[in-house]
Structure prediction request, 419 residues.
Amino acid sequence: MTEQSPADTRDSSLAAQYEAYPYPERNPQDEAKRLLIGSPSHLREIDYWVFGAKRPQSQPLRALVAGCGTGDGAIMLATHLQRAGRPGEVVCVDRSQKALSIAQARAQARELANIRFIQGSLTELDTLDLGLFDYIDCCGVLHHLPDPDAALALLEKHLAPDGGMGLMVYAPYGRTGVYMVQDALEKIAPHSETPQARLDMARRVMRTLPATAWLRQNGNFGDHLSGGDAGLYDLLLNPRDRAYTVTEFLEFLDKAGLEPSCLMEPARYDPTLFLPDPRLRARISGLPWQQQAAIAEDLAGNMATHVAYVVRKGAHITPPDPLDFASVPVMREIPGVELAKQMRPDHTLPFAFGTLVVPIPLPPQMRGILPLIDGERTVGALAEAVAARGISESKFRKVWAEGFTTLERLNRVLLRPPA
Prediction:
């Protein structure tokens, strides 16, 4: 018998983890109560941030969820497609049979006819003979692999010529405290032990974790720490877990011949939103956007992940002009009337970037325009509606340009693709 290398033993431990504690912990019966929504892989986001709101809705979307886990992103995307009556297929690949069985049960509960499941490793996509995909989701997976660069290059190889991806990787500063506890637990409960034995040790540590531990101060992980065995294990016992600063993430994409069409949300990476000092803003605004994004991460301190929609270098499609009266705005998820209610008397919208809440100024007139956005009215129809309230076309154009730009950067108002 040959001795396993450290990398192999970590990989074996990782495989055992997701069979014992499929992540995230989900109950298929809950599908009757709610649809979990997030980024990436929200259909309206894909339409806008990947395809520039120019790919017809009638064109079939072939999507791969590489490392689907228990299925959050896959179920969301397949449900969105089916509800909208749009053609397409969501192919889910994961090497954990236990995780796949949960995702399959969730799909069956929703009677999804546009989704299929394949047991296999995303690092062996070539052997699965799945062809090319218009869209690839790889969320929370690459940072657990022995060679993330090779894995991302392989995904790029399976991307259709005009396709794009939705990615999520861990970020270091918002995970402050996590790696300290991970290091301690690897000494107390080595990854060579069974997942059950390691989890028992983690529970014991967390019961009496000192108040001075950095993890105690970090408010980013309530869902993990209260998310059952799977959440605790994934946070503190994962045998291979690395994080990328936004600069490292951009370099990671560049190596694979990719570039971001959108870091999610775009405004999160603008440090001037939470730095009101005029001289600071002037200094920062003159820097390249990559440096501005790095400054936002450095100073906010709470980014625990980086979510991005990416395309091949030079392939980013500019969305339609939001001032074109034929464009159709659409709310990403929250109805316009509800978003308008969230505006404060001073016409700011309190927006949460994780645990950081920033007041975002909006034109006062957006309070009346937002409820009119129904995904059917054109920008021209909005202008006509507010004209009856005494707002001239020139005034509307100024208000709409500012309001749309602000809410687009918050990923709240987008544009609809053609039918």
